[in-house]
Amino acid sequence: KKFFENVAVQFNMAERLDKHLENLKEIPQHLKRVQINESNEYYLPQVINELKKQYNRDVMLEILKVFEKHWDNGNKWMLHILSKSHLILNHLDQLKNMKHMVQIEISISSIDEKLIRDLEFYTPTIKKRMETINKLATNDIFVRTMAMPFWGDYKEVEAIKKLSFNNGARGFKNKRLNYFDWQQLQALDYNDLINDKVSRVQGRPDNMFEDLNEKSGETLLFKGKPKIVNVSFPHVRKWSTPTILDEKLSLQDQKIIDCGYSQLNKVKWAYIK
Known about the structure:
Layout: H1 13-23, E1 33-36, H2 45-55, H3 59-72, E2 78-83, H4 92-97, E3 102-107, H5 113-119, H6 126-138, E4 143-150, H7 154-166, E5 171-176, H8 182-186, H9 190-194, E6 218-219, E7 221-222, E8 225-226, E9 228-233, H10 241-246, E10 250-255, E11 257-258
Parallel strand pairs: 1-2, 2-3, 3-4, 4-5
Antiparallel strand pairs: 6-11, 7-8, 9-10
């Protein structure tokens, strides 16, 4: 299959999700957090159009309604929906109904429009993404800008944050290009890239400029120091379903972090605010 040309769709996702959430309803509240579109993108125009045309289906809307149903029944899951696309506004009415349980994360990798066009094929412009942030925020939906992986320096990251907050964003997260040094990439031409003449950077943290992050899981300080609380976790963090269901939980020390949840609902999320 060719990248950008083929898409796999799981038509039974909503049904499977419904059963899965029911099985997980007894796990601790602070574990009930889900990121959607973490490594893919549902909001692709051709995919959406073909699903509607051939099957009269909107798979993402079906998924959102499953989460809404479980929340209303007391099985409360917090959703982080990551996207680069303005087409997330197709679900604006549904997201307005779920604004107490969703955070939209709009991804932006550069402030340079030409660079975006060269590196992120078929994605909306920065202007269009800012308009999307503004529309969501105007409807009181929590929006976080995810500048990750970001190509640029401090001033450019700061400029994206300012632009985002001017359009109503309430959270901001930035991470560097994990494996390569941006300054080195700028000095190379296309042939160097395809011939793998770029050295990888080892052992550095993901965060570029921590002082620019806001309500993105950042540690809350009390009298200058993080406050530690005991909460239940599986021993394996990157768990599979059997791990959550079958492995015994144990109390572990966690720093209190600010994700902006307290702005949205009154659910007790343990170490998450």
